[in-house]
Amino acid sequence: MGDMTNSDFYSKNQRNESSHGGEFGCTMEELRSLMELRGTEAVVKIKETYGDTEAICRRLKTSPVEGLPGTAPDLEKRKQIFGQNFIPPKKPKTFLQLVWEALQDVTLIILEIAAIISLGLSFYHPPGEGDPDICPEDEGEAEAGWIEGAAILLSVICVVLVTAFNDWSKEKQFRGLQSRIEQEQKFTVVRAGQVVQIPVAEIVVGDIAQVKYGDLLPADGLFIQGNDLKIDESSLTGESDQVRKSVDKDPMLLSGTHVMEGSGRMLVTAVGVNSQTGIIFTLLGAGGEEEEKKDKKGKRNPFVAIEERDLQDGAAAMEMQPLKSAEGGDADDKKKANMHKKEKSVLQGKLTKLAVQIGKAGLVMSAVTVIILVLYFTVDTFVVNKKPWLPECTPVYVQYFVKFFIIGVTVLVVAVPEGLPLAVTISLAYSVKKMMKDNNLVRHLDACETMGNATAICSDKTGTLTTNRMTVVQAYVGDVHYKEIPDPSSINDKTMELLVNAIAINSAYTTKILPPEKEGALPRQVGNKTECGLLGLVLDLKQDYEPVRSQVPEEKLYKVYTFNSVRKSMSTVIRLPDESFRMYSKGASEIVLKKCCKILSGAGEPRVFRPRDRDEMVKKVIEPMACDGLRTICVAYRDFPSSPEPDWDNENDILNDLTCICVVGIEDPVRPEVPEAIRKCQRAGITVRMVTGDNINTARAIAIKCGIIHPGEDFLCLEGKEFNRRIRNEKGEIEQERIDKIWPKLRVLARSSPTDKHTLVKGIIDSTHTEQRQVVAVTGDGTNDGPALKKADVGFAMGIAGTDVAKEASDIILTDDNFSSIVKAVMWGRNVYDSISKFLQFQLTVNVVAVIVAFTGACITQDSPLKAVQMLWVNLIMDTFASLALATEPPTETLLLRKPYGRNKPLISRTMMKNILGHAVYQLTLIFTLLFVGEKMFQIDSGRNAPLHSPPSEHYTIIFNTFVMMQLFNEINARKIHGERNVFDGIFRNPIFCTIVLGTFAIQIVIVQFGGKPFSCSPLQLDQWMWCIFIGLGELVWGQVIATIPTSRLKFLKEAGRLTQKEEIPEEELNEDVEEIDHAERELRRGQILWFRGLNRIQTQIEVVNTFKSGASFQGALRRQSSVTSQSQDVANLSSPSRVSLSNALSSPTSLPPMYWSKRCLSHVSVRDCH
User: Compositional bias (Polar residues) at which positions (predicted)?
Assistant: First the structure.
């Protein structure tokens, strides 16, 4: 359907456009073809066709300064002609597809087959029936025979529907969530001279949009004015280098690319399906379905597919092809190679293993049961009673055997815990839903369970641990260090004017302070928070920045050096009325002060500022501020003569000889709830580390305030440079052993780059230093945090401050940017794990007892005391409900009082094993007592050797009823798995649990009193009911007895469901070919530098050769490979796609030129090297 909608969309737009072309000076088609050009080609084309960007603005009836008038009819008309900025989504899976997927479960399939056989046989009435003397016929079974098969099928249908419904609601939630994220996405445009934020979908062709650092461009456009704009176009071209944009060299801005630095304005020229990203999505939508059809006709080489498609779509597709690899990581190849590689989450791994173990045991038990029954019957009938085998009795004997088979299957059904997959699904789905309320928006389901095992959290400082509301609280102006905001009268007028101008002009004009939304609230800060803090200082000094900005509008700024992580400062040059230039600068104080040679005195006059003055200032002013946890920012300026005009591109000369105006200390207060949250983490065995770009003193001060470090402890606080020095060897390569020496004690990493963050996360995850592999969670908000978020076990992105790039790479989005929400995620994660353990403890007790009862009963009395339908009621229905009841227990704070379980802790601990076996002993003792002496206790007829077609006996009904009562009360015991005594603790906080226990009890009464033949029950008296309930209550007392036995004494108890070390290693690393490359890699490291030089030359030559060989597909493939290369931050990621492509190449050597493939091999090795 994605394809349908897209193509309809397309044709509709085409039609509209041809009819309306005349209203604007250019058609959609022209603009689309213009946007397919790059760099100089585009500049030439614009010059030839339109003149310049101003002319395009005129043709599109918009003004570069004022923007669109923004009237409704005009916007509507633009949407009609040029399309809307929205790409139709792919169709979700239908409910039936989900049902079909749920049916693929193995246990369900076994059950279905058994049920169908049973149904078939119950309707097959052989001739020669009805002569009971010759052939012993079990009449009761014959009449109710179909009931059993039907009951089994019905229960299967229940399970399937519940699972499918869960998946469906999950999908629906996720779509709701997607649309929520999309609606929240706003973009800044200029309309009628006003800067407004509008939803991305509202952008139309002709809008003037303001772009800034961290933006994901929502549409294609032309760059019309701005400074220092650098774009990361790797999502389209696969080239990881940032592309510098300028009006005269490369003005093309493409949707889906990221702004890495700078700011500016763009004229929107293509939106929605006509933008570059839109064209790709259309191709992917259409292409995906075509491929599916063709794949069915026969297996095809993925390269050929690309070739065909490239030929169909010509240039557009060629430009677009790489996206496939950037977005989907080479979707086709990977899918084929990695079907088996989808790494299961820890819990799923343990559960699968456990289910297999239980399943095997069940199979053995059921096989033995069937064999014993068959042997007993044949020996008894033909040997002991010496009955002849009469041909007319054959069908009856067959029915006997089928009955035995069904008892066997019932034993198997009871042995296999079908409730398990359901319990996991319910538990995860429930948690995800509730986590939404706790401000955790989960994008990947298993992230929520992984979080419960987390052992380390690497957190950002700004915005996560702090409120991200910057305020200036100290200042050093005119030789005085003010501990609070100075009185405006105490500052010299000249200094004041410079200060106000420096702050107002040298900041993004999109940064503003707006009046509060509610009475008595704080003013709203919009834009860059540090700049907001400085503008706040201007307002606190009773000045106003608006008049200054209106005097020097953005278009009049002569040159801007925007802030980036290398410069750590921002400067703006303006032309003064006397034609001379003035540059205002601001930035990290230690960096800007190094470039100052003068400072303003108290009288507002510049005086000499020597290095020793600077050292004194660092000691007396900057360090004390930093130790109070303040960020220090220095504001400075410099005047230039009008002639000769300075060489603005020579940054080193320009950003020097500055005059310092003031140094301010900006406070970003710690969120009030963070210290408590961090204390909880530490108590729960989770180490919190702070990774920040701030100065080390500031970082240390904040870390102490948060409680990440406590004075007197043995810990490390490092700066990025020092960290890198310590973890690299002489050749500058990172060594794992070196990281292992540092990370256990490291608590604060300051002045760190995004690469440092990635290195740290990878180092901790790959470490074998501790006996358990570390599970690392990372928070990030910046564009450059992407790699670290992807590498971590769980990546948290900030919902408010986070850039679009960070959200894409994350597993969970924190909708309130708050650290304490991470603690909630840990709680929910542990809760999921515990819920499943609770359910297991309950389920396995039922299984052990039911299997043994069925088995011994069948062997001793040739008939199971618990009938098949009764077993199914206990097993399928009660367990399904129990999984609901136990999987929806809300988390409690006590979950945070224990250490993380770790990846190889068994699912069933010794304590749980003790509980399971202890309760099984109690239940079996009572059931066998009832079975063999029950009739004497209750003075009723024995049900044991009742004639075959007698009605259901009270005796067996009492056994069934007691069994169910014991399960009900044991369900309450199962609420605690760590041997706690009070099993009722918090029971009323979980209404679902109470409802289910009472509900099951009510249904049980109905079954016993009115179930009759289908359930093999006969109604019971009140005193018999009382005894059943009394025996059930005994479970609770017995639970206390079991809790008294110390687990440590029971050494013989085995644990189960443990992931062994071998399975612990992800499959990628077990592949031998990767291993070989790893050894090779170590060898190759030595020649690394030579490799690169050679490689670059060879690559260039190959590109040239390939351009002459006109095979489109090779070029597409090369380009895809290079984009995979640039994307992969991680060796392991890369190993699979490139290996697949090589093997594909090998399988059809004729289809590829030798040069192509040497390049493939080279890029493979080199990429692995460079990491």
Answer: 1-13
